[in-house]
Inverse folding.
């Protein structure tokens, strides 16, 4: 497993040095892995400290700031900090008002933070300890006060930090923290394990179709192994468990924290957020605030957790209070606006109906269905090619476009011109990448030429093919030899035009076009790409034919099968 580190023994110190370098108003103690607010005010309010093993970034150092933590104590990866480190943090930031320690419910953290609290009290520093045990996945396994503390701890940080900054006493701050912890439930799901820098191998293994439900944040397995489920079902499982444990009822006011575990992209977190908000509203709950991001991770673990916090007006105000902690995401406003109607001025799509098809329209429809079927059948091949020298989406894009063509109503095939423009519209709407605009532009230009030259003779079709290829070149700036679809399309159009001009039949001319397209597509394997994503690979793309050119040769060959049946 590759990691961007130096010596594994130096990971934590070097990480904290890097974090502090970009966080004005914070400092790192010289002999301990403790980040503190710096400088501190002379008249200090109650100090708030938290921490634990490293590997949970941005927790806990990312929450050091006015209005959240006064100090964060970091241990080795997934290892509690020592009592001496915690005590050093307390002594560095606590004034006469004392300190409140927020501890996730893991044995090492409880022991070391608890011991440090006793040592601090011995030195005359008032200290309160609040333990967060929000992992509802363990509800049927251990007693409530023995559950793990996971991502819901971040919400407690915010409540406590704001309360302390407002001038409340240590007893009041601690009670607010305990009250918040009682109303938070969290549950996680992992799609795979994480890898400790010093170990270099995963903590557990999962099959490609397996997940772990109810995992902790230290790379340990969950309480249940399951087959991979759609995001909506996973969210419903987590929400149902949390809602039952908290005893949520219709009308309760809640906030939502969607937390990535370290290797979950924002795209997936947004899908989870959508499902969670929908599930909460369907339960009749008032979602006052929501946040989505990576707040308390497990190194590079793929997966997420949901935290639900039933709040009152006081707690909501504390969540809304300002803080300059760099990792706090803001106020978490929720947008409940329904989608608004787009007002694009586009040509209306042909509507289903009983419109009769001209013989030419029927032939175009038959040819288009053959091409669409061939592209769908070639999805895996095109995906493999594009993965080697692109971004891997060509196969799915072509299949999606082909399906859109197959779904066109009969009215779309009334005439060749209407058919070409309808296919262009379908591809424009169904393919968001470069292939959609290229093919749509080509089909629209060809459609106009066909419409202006009725009836469309073989020569008109040859001219339309050439115009379509020119449209692609004009739009993207590519030329033959640049290793693009044009390396198949241009030879094919030239061969077709030349054969038609010599008086050959359309069937024979199209066979020449097929041969030229296939030869042109194969030749791209020896070309160095000059345009598109493959150009970023340079010589590394040589040896693999261009996926776009291969796709063009596939549908051109499929059209020939249909033409031969005329």
């Amino acid at each position: 497993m590759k990691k961007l580190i130096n010596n594994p023994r130096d990971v934590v110190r070097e990480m904290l040095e890097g974090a502090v370098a970009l966080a004005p108003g914070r400092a790192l103690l010289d002999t301990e892995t403790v980040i503190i607010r710096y400088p501190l005010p002379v008249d200090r309010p109650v100090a708030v400290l938290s921490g634990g093993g490293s590997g949970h970034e941005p927790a806990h150092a990312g929450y050091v700031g006015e209005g959240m933590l006064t100090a964060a104590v970091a241990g080795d990866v997934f290892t509690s900090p020592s009592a001496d480190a915690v005590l050093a943090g307390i002594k560095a930031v606590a004034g006469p008002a004392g300190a409140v320690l927020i501890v996730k419910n893991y044995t090492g953290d409880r022991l070391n933070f608890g011991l440090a609290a006793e040592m601090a009290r011995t030195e005359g520093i008032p200290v309160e300890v609040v333990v967060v045990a929000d992992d509802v996945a363990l509800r049927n396994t251990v007693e409530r006060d023995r559950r793990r503390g996971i991502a819901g701890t971040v919400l407690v940080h915010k409540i406590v930090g704001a309360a302390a900054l407002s001038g409340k006493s240590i007893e009041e701050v601690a009670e607010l923290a305990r009250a918040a912890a009682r109303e938070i439930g969290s549950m996680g799901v992992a799609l795979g394990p994480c890898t400790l820098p010093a170990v270099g191998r995963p903590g557990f293994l999962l099959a490609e179709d397996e997940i772990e439900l109810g995992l902790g944040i230290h790379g340990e397995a969950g309480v249940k192994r399951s087959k991979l489920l759609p995001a909506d079902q996973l969210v419903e499982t987590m929400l149902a468990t949390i809602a039952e444990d908290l005893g949520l009822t219709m009308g309760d006011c809640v906030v939502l924290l969607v937390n990535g575990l370290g290797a979950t992209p924002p795209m997936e977190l947004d899908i989870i957020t959508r499902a969670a908000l929908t599930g909460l509203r369907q339960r009749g709950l008032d979602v006052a605030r929501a946040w989505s991001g990576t707040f308390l991770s497990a190194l590079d673990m793929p997966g997420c957790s949901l935290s639900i916090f039933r709040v009152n007006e006081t707690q909501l105000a504390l969540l809304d209070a300002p803080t300059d902690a760099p990792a706090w995401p803001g106020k978490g406003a929720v947008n409940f606006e329904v989608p608004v109607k787009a007002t694009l001025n586009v040509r209306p799509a042909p509507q289903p109906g009983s419109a009769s098809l001209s013989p030419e329209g029927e032939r175009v429809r038959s040819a288009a269905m053959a091409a669409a079927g061939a592209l769908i059948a070639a999805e895996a091949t095109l995906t493999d090619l594009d993965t080697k020298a692109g971004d891997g989406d060509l196969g799915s894009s072509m299949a999606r476009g082909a399906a859109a063509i197959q779904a066109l109503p009969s009215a779309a095939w009334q005439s060749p011109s209407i058919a070409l423009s309808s296919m262009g519209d379908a591809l424009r709407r169904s393919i968001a990448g470069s292939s959609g605009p290229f093919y749509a532009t080509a089909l629209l230009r060809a459609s106009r030429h066909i419409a202006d030259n009725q009836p469309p003779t073989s020569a008109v079709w040859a001219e339309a093919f050439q115009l379509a290829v020119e449209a692609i070149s004009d739009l993207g700036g590519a030329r033959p030899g640049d290793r693009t679809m044009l390396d198949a399309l241009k030879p094919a159009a030239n061969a077709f035009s030349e054969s038609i001009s010599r008086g050959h039949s359309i069937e024979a001319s199209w066979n020449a076009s097929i041969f030229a397209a296939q030869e042109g597509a194969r030749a791209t394997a020896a070309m160095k790409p000059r345009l598109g994503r493959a150009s970023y690979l340079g010589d590394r793309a040589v040896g693999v034919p261009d996926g776009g050119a291969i796709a063009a040769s596939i549908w051109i060959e499929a059209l020939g099968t249909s033409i031969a049946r005329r």
